[in-house]
Amino acid sequence: MRLTICGGGTGGHVYPALALARFALQQDKEAQILFVGTERGLESRIVPAAGFRLSTITARGYQRGLRQAGPVAKALFAGFAQAREILRDFNPDLVLGMGGYVSAPVVMAAVFDRRPAVIHEQNAIPGLANRILAPLVSRVCISFEQSGRLFSRLSHV
Fold this sequence. Notes:
single chain; 157 residues; Rossmann fold
């Protein structure tokens, strides 16, 4: 199995992603796992230190306000193009978005290229990226049952 995991910026996304990567390796010793993150996020240090490969893209948080709309859109398009190239090269069987601003361009690229994509929400109240991505993916995995009410019928605890 070839698995791409994206998400980062904070430990709330990175540490659960690492736990899922380790679980995938326990289930399939031959699994190949690629993380996608940013150079400035926590994942840039934590993921390689945990022994996993990391590719980086351009991504920027979704800050509210019109002044931020241009830079955020520019970063989203750049990250989307970079993610398409990374996914084309790695050719994953599944793309797993863990939330956070870095997951949006990667999951969108996967969906655009018709690759299987799912998201995982670790929090009781879903973040913006996962709320945007939920209608696009085939499955939404949640940690808290109450989160399911904020997603569609696609959510599974």
